[in-house]
Amino acid sequence: MDFERYAAIVRDPAARHERYAEMTSSYFDAFTDLYRELWSDSLNLTWFTGQKSLAEAQKDHERKVGDLLGVTPGMRVLDVGCGIGNPALEISAHTGAHVTGVTISPRQVEVAATKIAEAGAADRVEVVLGDAMELPFPDNSFDAAYAIQAIGHMPDKPRVYREISRVLRDDTVLVCSDGFLRSRTDLVDHGEAMEVLFQTFAVPSVTTIHECQEELRAAGLGMEYLTRYSDHGDMTPNWAIGEQIAAKLMGGDGPSELSFLFGASMDALGKAAESGALELYLWAARKLPGRS
Ligand SMILES: C[S@@+](CC[C@H](N)C(=O)[O-])C[C@H]1O[C@@H](n2cnc3c(N)ncnc32)[C@H](O)[C@@H]1O
Hints:
The protein is α/β, with parallel strands linked by helices and 292 residues long. The chain is 49% helix and 19% strand. Residues 24, 28, 42-44, 81-83, 86-87, 102-105, 108, 131-133, 148-150, 153-154 line the site of S-adenosylmethionine.
């Protein structure tokens, strides 16, 4: 990664929109291996029940996404912003569906190919390079879609919802799990903390859940299920793990720029979530007939 070039994009709110493709692919190309080492192969936050480990809790979250898809074995599912395919492998095994993941990061496609081969899952999971703002698939080609903490990284969310709606068949479901602003005023009240969050995670913008509902409706998708992560379990272990990572990476002697930035992102995430400004939701929306 050309760190100075990348830093110039993330520090500038306009550039985070205009140059999102370079920003996002650079971010995930550079940080995917650190996520694997320090967080997990699933690049997501989850809710925790009982004494479950991060990996066990992520499995619960991903299976819940799989259950909400309403698919049967052999159906075709799209994973929008699929990371290295860990949720796709889990959801395919859980539902029996064929999952196609799309990511904007070439490094993630490479890692996913190895993981899929190691799992012997090439007949049921594939991961391709592509931009969700312009999905590389024909109209009406999927029986369901999901996006786990990915759409937050995309600059034009109405366009992404329209794209997903276009590739879904009528009367099928999009399941999404993501972070949303509690309210627009939080961008003022917690402006500094949110800006640190956006810069360290390469996020162009976030919306409120109400704005999301409007954007979905405009794309021909009607929300029919909506829960907070905290309805399902405890969120605090995420922030505790993040704090440990931040302490490890930001302290000590001369961490590399990448390590420091990764640590800073974990620190910013915990602060934004604990302030209440960032809320995590799991929702499902159905494609209304005749909309694409
Ligand atoms: C936080 S990661 C989550 C990955 C995965 N869903 C998981 O839970 O492991 C966000 C993902 O969104 C992808 N992404 C972000 N913007 C994208 C875009 N415009 N098109 C395709 N993928 C994108 C990233 O490449 C990354 O895989």
